[in-house]
Amino acid sequence: MLLLTSKQLEELLKPELLIDEIGKAFAMFSEGKTVMPPRTVMWIENNWWGVMQAYVPNYGVGIKVVNVIPTNIERGLPTIQALVTLFDPTTGSPLAVLEGGILTALRTGAASGVSAKYMAPKAKGAIAIIGTGFQARYQLRFVSKVFETSNIRIYDLRREAMESFKKYAEDLGFNVTICNSPQEAVKGARIVIEATTTKEPVIFGEALEPPVHVISIGAHMPQARALNDEVIKRAEVIVVDSKEAVMKETGDIRFPVEKGILKLDQVAELGEVVAGKKPGRIGDGITVFKSVGLAIQDACAAGLAYRLAKEKGIGIEIEL
Ligand SMILES: NC(=O)c1ccc[n+]([C@@H]2O[C@H](COP(=O)([O-])OP(=O)(O)OC[C@H]3O[C@@H](n4cnc5c(N)ncnc54)[C@H](O)[C@@H]3O)[C@@H](O)[C@H]2O)c1
Questions:
Q1: For residue 75, how far is its CA from the centre of ligand 1 (angstroms)?
Q2: Burial class of 304 by CB neighbour count within 10 A (0 to 12, 13 to 18, 19+)
Q3: Counting atoms of ligand 1 from 1, which one is nearest the CA of 291?
Q4: What is the pLDDT of residues 264-317, one digit of tens each?
Q5: Which residues line ligand 1 (CB under 6 A)?
Q6: What does pTM read for this prediction?
Q7: What domains can you pick out in the chain, each with its CATH number?
């Protein structure tokens, strides 16, 4: 069996390739070709834990144990930690154990990249990022591969998070503007990325200046929301990773549907957009991609990393 570390995963899973492969996995998911029972959610000491399992043809069976511990910031530990196990679908043999924190950040960046590929406006402009923690770095690296810009506008509740992100992005060659509010950050942005641990809206539809594509990866709990009603009301196209999952797992879609602001049949899945069955962008308005994260993304990224690691002789072989 192969053990793959976070460093090795970073080396193997390059943005362009992973965006393509994750797009294929989303298309298979929306066509019903994958197996993915709803994830099991546990609340342990007030923190969210998930067990996520899926089979994706050509990639394998992946099972992830993941937790989100927001107070870990004070301990100097990552908010999200995880382990992924990959199995051979035919023999059932365990193939690999992979560090899951980086794998999660990479596959989440890739999903946002897929959404930007199909939904970003043609017009040039800045990328705004609200919430400049760990995921934000991967969101920037992946989304900027499909939407070229040199200008990044950021906002976070924590000054130190903004300073450290600014340095990271400047080292990558971007110009970074620190803003005083999320409303200021989204001004003139053609892509807005929300990557916070908020439970209350941080993206306000009134402040968006179309054409703009909004990507929201936070607020993945049924009572939490990152987008206010106005974002949903003004959006021309709303795309999610899974209709079933977003209705269960985020207030961002659940509340507007319950209030009658949004009908679920107006919402498309990313896989349907990739397969060309539903449009990602139809005009110069506001588009939204909301994700809560799917096990098919982990299985796809793990299967791809395993295949590439075997080809390149990367990873630590262990005998169980
Ligand atoms: N959709 C997915 O597939 C997926 C995958 C991984 C993580 N996530 C989610 O992404 C979010 C970010 O994760 P992370 O690992 O980057 O966490 P993190 O703790 O490293 O970063 C979160 C940042 O958000 C900031 N923040 C919190 N509330 C805010 C507010 N109201 N306004 C502005 N900034 C605010 C924090 O100060 C922090 O810097 C979490 O909610 C996580 O669960 C989603």
A1: 16
A2: buried
A3: 1
A4: 999 999 999 999 999 999 999 999 999 999 999 999 999 999 999 999 999 999
A5: 68, 73, 79-80, 104, 108, 130-136, 155-158, 161, 195-198, 202, 217-218, 220, 291-293
A6: 0.97
A7: 2-104+296-317 (3.30.1780.10), 120-293 (3.40.50.720)
